[in-house]
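Aim 2 progress update. The chain analyzed this quarter is reproduced below.
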Amino acid sequence: MKKLLLIPVLFLIFGNIRAQQVTLNKSTYQVGEAITVNFTGSTSILDWIALFNEDITPGNQNNHGWKYTSNTQTASATTIESGSVTFGEGLSAIGKYKVCLLSNDSYTVAATVNFEVVAQVPTTLTPVGEWLFNDPQDLLKSSVGPALELVGTHAAVSGPTLTDGAVRIGVGSHYKLVHGIAPNNGTKVNTYSLCYDFKVSSIGVYYSFLQTTVENNDDGEIFVDKTGHLGVRNTGYSPEPIVAGEWNRMVVVVNNGVEYSIYLNGVKFLIGVAQEIDGRFGLNPTALLMADEDGEDNEMDVARISIYNKALTEAEVASLGGVELVVPVDVPQTPLKPMVLVYPNPTEDFIKVQLANNETMTQLFLTDMLGRSVFTSNLKDSGSDLTIDVRTFPKGMYLLTLKGSSEPIVTKIVVK
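Predicted structure tokens:
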């Protein structure tokens, strides 16, 4: 009988002890991808989980991140036998790694599993709505999603490149956007991203990008303030201002309750205060663009607006980049007038300017598209033939101006 009792006694002692184990949902992760570790068999509140290089023996400060089984760096009050820990930022470098369950605040490994980190796979970002303003005859049409509705007036203007169009819209005028995004994380759209290619002519007044109140009887949500900073009081303003006269690509990432970020030309420009779910930044089915109720929607140029039904990641925003002066390579040689010739155009090394002997032009100016001088010459000194070295110039578009006794001549030059 004593031998028969042994089996149930052993079960009572060991039956509830689970094997110590860590597992992953997959064996390969991309750089920056969150890593969730599942564990079982933890026996102490001080058991902890850490990420190491595969060939490293766990030791002092040689891990890539750690947490107690509480999923924080503060131990829980009671033992958590099984559960999961998430490293939200993932790992920043490709390579072979392992995750270890370590016992009682020591470097004794109770369980381990190997995994690999690979380069990020580029993804194609598809907006649910996009407006490029390239057709002067129909500025409201979309390339993706529904057309915009204009309230007030606007006008077609030149965009940031030779092939880009843009729109100029000012005080009292705005667009109605029916975005088509279903409510998420609440009764409104609480997770979304907006992208704007824009330019303001001066600093000293407010410019508005978004109004979530359809009646436009309240303050807007995203501004350039009088000092050139981006944001609004609730979220905070960017620490640095924008520059008047420059085209910028701004991406606003909204994930109410979690994140509010503004990026400028692919770089994070503001880590703002996340807003409440279904609050001020929650979208109704219709939103207003470039609107404000009391005149803080001054005139700006806009070459692109896009909306996404997700909170874009930092890598995804970086892939959108910034506004660049990318121009076609087939701009023809420009005969300015019978007695003046500028060539080749476009160019990547030199520009040649030839003047007839009786041409009255005496000064040459080359400026960038912000009006900054990059080259000047007195043609009386340089003669009728002039060569300009542009090999160190940033790629983009420039204005070449010839002045003299007759009317000035201005032509566009492209450096590729």
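Residues 2-14 form the longest helix (13 residues). The chain has a mean pLDDT of 87. These observations will guide the mutagenesis experiments scheduled for the next reporting period.
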